[in-house]
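Q: Could you fold this chain for me?
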Amino acid sequence: MSAAPTGEIYRIDWLPGTDTLHGTCHCGREHTSQDPIEMWEWMLAHPNGHTPQGHEPQGNEPQGNSS
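A: Sure. Below is the predicted structure, expressed as structure tokens.
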């Protein structure tokens, strides 16, 4: 029995003529690596491994003056 589909698509392409893998996460972030294990760890770490393009990680947003 398998879990219900999430709609998340992870894609890893091999760049011909190189030992390089190019990964695209379901959020749109991209990553390049020669190590397939490191590539999958990066993808599966979502959202801790990266943030969607155009977004800043939480905790880095400007805070108002509390005075």
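A (continued): Strands lie at 11-14, 21-24, 30-33.
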